[in-house]
Amino acid sequence: MKKITLALVSALVLILVSFTANFNNTSSTVLNDIDGTLLKSSPVIENNNGDVTVTFSVDKNVIVTKALIGNSNEIYLIENGNSNASKTVTLDLQPVNGKVATAFNNIYENNYDVASSSDALLNQDPERRPVGVIIWD
């Protein structure tokens, strides 16, 4: 009986450690400030041994682009109508000097004129939210 109890306790400790330990050097951050943006779900930034990705949901009609500008991975969400359906997007983020910074730029249909969209994008600052940074050694 003593051996069975010891075996069960050892098994429970092993299960508990497997759920709480971080054996594969991964971490994640959730950005919650999405009210009033084109995001349908909170973005999750994941660091998997230095490979950093961000995953989020938007309307299927939203155009998603990304560019490394300075030290920030700028993600542009451009409204393009409403489909009443969502899509999940996963983007790779580039680290700069050991950290990854990102910001979501929301550009709404009422902010630009399709005929002269390049002028509108240059003259108006898009709303940058949410913003996140992961730093690791």
How does the overall form come out from the CA principal axes? globular
- Approximately how much helix is present in the residues? 10-25%
Roughly how many Å apart are the termini? Answer: 48 Å
Number of domains: 1
- Unreliable segments (pLDDT under 50, ≥5 consecutive)? 5-23
- The gyration radius over C-alpha positions equals 21 Å
By DSSP (H or I, 4+ residues per run), the number of helices equals 2
Fraction of residues in β-strands: 35-45%
Structural class: alpha+beta
* Average pLDDT reading: 74
At a glance:
With 137 residues, this protein is an alpha+beta fold.
Structural notes for this entry:
With 137 residues, the protein is α+β, with helices and mostly antiparallel strands. The protein has one domain (24-135). It contains 2 helices and 8 strands. It has a 4-stranded antiparallel β-sheet with strand order 1-2-3-6, with no helix packed on it. The chain is globular, with a radius of gyration of 21 Å. The N and C termini lie far apart (48 Å).
